[in-house]
Amino acid sequence: MSLTRRQFIAIGGSGVGALALGSGLGTGFWGLDRSPLHDPGSEGEKVVPTFCEICFWKCGVLAHVKDGRVTKIVGNPAHPLSRGKLCPRGTGGVGLLYDPDRLKQPLVRTSKRGEDRFEAVSWDAALNKVAEGMRRIKERYGPEALALFAHGYGSSWWSALMKAFGSPNVGQPSYAQCRGPREAAFSLTFGQSPGSPENLDIENARCLTLIGSHLGENMHNTQVQELAEALSRGAELVVVDPRFSTAAGKARYWLPIKPGTDLALLLAWIHVIVSEERYDVRYVEKHTLGLEELRAHVKEKTPEWAYPLTGIRPELIRESARFIASFKPASLVHPGRRTTWYGDDTQRERAMAILAALLGSWGRRGGFLLPGAMEVPKLAAPLTGAASQPAASQAAASQPAASQPAAKRPRPAADKPKGGGYPFADETLASGLLEASFPGVAAYQVKGWLVYGTNLLQVLPDPRRVLEAMKHEELIVAIDVLPAEITGWADVVLPEATYLERTDDLWAPAYKQPFVALRQEVVPPLHDSKPGYFMVRELASRLGLGAHFPWPTADEAVEARARAAKLDWATLKKSGVILGKAAPTTEEEGLALAFDTPSKKIELRSDQLKAAGFHGLPEFTPPEEPPPGSFRLLFGRAPVHTFGRTVNNRFLSQVFPENELWINTAAAASLAAFADKPLKSGDRVMLVNQDGARSGPIRVKVTERIRGDCVYMVHGYGHTARGLRFARGRGASDSALVTRSKVDPIMGGTGMNVNFVRLERPRAPEDEAGKEGRA
Amino acid sequence: MSRRYAMTVDTRRCVGCNACVLACKAENKLPEQGFRDWIVTETRGTFPHLKQEIRSERCNHCEHTPCVSACPTGASHKSEGGTVLVDHRKCTGCKACIAACPYSARYVRPEGYVDKCTFCLHRVKRGQEPACVEICPTSALAFGDLNDAASPVARLLHERASKVVKPETGLKPNVRFLT
Cα–Cα 20 to 30 A to A328, which of A158, A759, B48, B102? Predict the structure, then answer.
């Protein structure tokens, strides 16, 4: 006897009685002698492939749907980024979709900004109000005075709207608050950046060096899969981290570096590798520019020089450098992701890029891969700015007219100060747009904000500055799924459907296995939430820009794009992904390396930086020390959470309900303020930073796993928003303590590891109850 | 030959991310604060001389089963492949099994009966892997039949050194940790 899966599910779904009956009928099939097998019934009647949005990695997932509800989410075996596996966060889509605190209706503010008082209105009324505000800004100040702050893949529709509207001011905090310094440094050195997802061949690396990455706690699915695979094959791991991270626990070498001194260590490593001729001679001679200048530059940067700066013994520096070099070229120095630490971050990343070049690992097996992407042309203007590709024009022809009179060329983005600055920023600075919101800072002032999926009060440094900036704005619109802090300050709140309830644009990134992935609606939107495309199209039509969005729904827009690119739409719907043809990604595979730099070489020495008044080779400047009794505040990720976005996720929070403050055992024992009753794990403390900013109470984790001069917490906690009923008051906010940042003069990144905190006992019993001390 | 189900947990691969725990919760519709598997991180030494091991743990489906012996109603029993199960209909929630288990692998559901890892036998019957094994991004988990030399667990245990948690219990766990 055999059962199809559908039949099996029908039995499983009808309860215990039917199960017992089924078991009796099919004893041989089940092979159970004692009791019927209980089926929990989570297998979907329908399984819909889509891609995840719990983080930016965007893994392919399969969402199981039963009785109209998503029961579970697993990895899509056909998708190159998930390969059937998934990180814990990805399972948490159900916790987002069914979050009882979701924004459910469009809201319009009824009292002073920030008082968080709103009335629910119709979509029509909300969109009219937004369109009116946008039109008024355009009339008074020009379209460029409107800025979009955005995070997440759904923002592509909003970027298109901005383009149609005539504003270049689209700032993704993922650049200047995160990966920007890395992008700038690698572009300066190699002519391109590692991309996102980073094109790293971790799987084939024989040695992986993590300096500023806590991969394993940072759960980028594919990278963690490859890390495990590499370790399993005997690859070596070198970890530089003030904290004994998960990865450090698996490493051959752990270098517990003094925070802020990574560049000194990198220069000393380069010193060893260059002076002992341990670099890849053929590769360096053929492809690089400036070896001799580099040799002279690091001549004095000996391990003995680095020792007092970094706290790492000279013999350990020497030994680890030789170790790393011995595996070249399959010796991969991970470029990191959030690289905005100390304001000299581009130079530190430059040193990492130089090291990668010396190891000959760029464009080599086990190093950095150089793949292409599938060609999936975007459709008519403004999605491309031009409808020149034949495929695109063909699609456009079959649709309502998308042609618009050529818009006036907008003024350049307002994200730089008046006199210029940050010459190597290759994306718009979200923090720059914040500054441009103040009068007189930039060439013109930003007067209205659209805020899509990014909680600026936790994302940008110094929440006080964000609150101040909002006073100058005539329009603030928040588009979000949850009532994060920033939505409380908006004039209009537009509740978006979650990624499981909407279709977004196709995604075809550069990756070793090129692919195009589809995000499609798994279940219809709950409450009165709507997909982003709906909002954008409605706003466009109210602003006279309707011709830019001719397709009635995102599904139709995406289908038109897929068909124009000759993709099999049925296959894409059914498997969620279509694979392209893989091309060579390394020299070993026959790729001819080319570098898009002025010299067409790998620029160990950067004349571009020099010409702009910066060091052509990285120089180390020691960071400011914490005052006595204070600790440097470091923050990072937990495997089950993405920033502050998942802290309200009740499903994910079951295994990580609140953040803890890591403090070294000996350091905790010597705290004068706690002399009477020494701190132990689980005690709650308050944190006060150098500017007097305070955090709410946080539990301490007294541990050997961190240096004594810094403390560490997982980012994203300490929510204050009333609507986040689960997250509110849980753990402490690192963001509230990052009142100071050091801006990287090269590309405008905001270094945020420059704050110091001291620990205090909670003052009153109500603090113990878990309330945040201040807004 | 009869089946002998076992699981291996590769401590070299595991990063303790909790994907196994959450996938189990969704698959088996576990109640809030009900867990059939969990992560243990053991750190030894003092700064900076530290060693660490991370394990994904669950019911060990032991050869010798004090939990079954302790059960007054016969709800706790050994099922196919040596899998230890609880028949929810027979369980009175007396917690004798919980007291007998040295691994704290069991908990009481709000409905009043005891619940624990089943090796996802309902999935295994369909030819699928247990939910924790399927999801694991580091492929640290493997499941199979020890009596089948070609099964992943048999191969891994042949190739790699392994250990069990609390060997002093003498219960012969069928969850093995690859070191």
Answer: B48
pLDDT digits (tens, 9 = 90+) for A262-280: 999 999 999 999 999 999 9
A427, A535, A440: which is closest to A196 by C-alpha?
Answer: A427
A532 and A443 within one domain: yes
Closest CB to B54: pick one of A244, A246, A254. A246
- C-alpha distance from residue A564 to each of A153, A213, A552, A571, B67 (Å): 21, 40, 17, 15, 63
Q: Are A430 and A536 members of one domain?
A: yes
Q: How far apart are CA A521 and CA A102, in angstroms?
A: 18
- The answer to whether residues A346 and A267 belong to one domain is yes
B5-178 is a CATH 3.10.20.600 domain: no
Would you call B28 and A664 a contact, using CB atoms and an 8 Å cutoff?
A: no
Query: What's the confidence (pLDDT) of residue A33?
Result: 47
Considering the domain architecture, whether residues A545 and A605 belong to the same structural domain is answered as no
Quote the number of domains for chain A.
4
ipTM above 0.95, yes or no: yes
Crossing angle of the two packed helices A123-141 and A532-542, in degrees rounded to 10: 50
| Of B13, B88, B135, Cβ closest to residue A231 | B13
- Which residues constitute the domain of residue A361? 200-368+601-611
A residues 628-687 near B, CB within 8 Å? 639-640, 650-652, 654-656, 664-666
pLDDT, residue A764, reads 63
Within-domain flag for A297 = yes
Task: Say yes or no: B125 contacts chain A, CB-CB below 8 A.
Answer: yes
What share of chain A has pLDDT > 70, as a percent? 90
A205 occurs within a structural domain = yes
Closest CA to B55 of B68, B75, B39, B43: B39
Q: What is the pLDDT of residues A284-312, one digit of tens each?
A: 999 999 999 999 999 999 999 999 999 99
CA-to-CA separations, B101 to A293, A308, B23, B31, in angstroms, rounded: 67, 52, 24, 21
Q: Which residues of chain A have pLDDT under 70?
A: 1-35, 380-407, 764-775
Tell me, yes or no, whether A11 and A36 share the same domain.
yes
Write out chain A residues lying below 8 Å of B43, CB-based. 244, 249, 703-705
B71 contacts: CB under 8 Å, gap ≥ 6: B77, B96, B97
Q: Do residues A635 and A739 both lie within one domain?
A: yes
Residue among A3, A30, A72 with most chain B CBs within 10 A, to mutate: A72
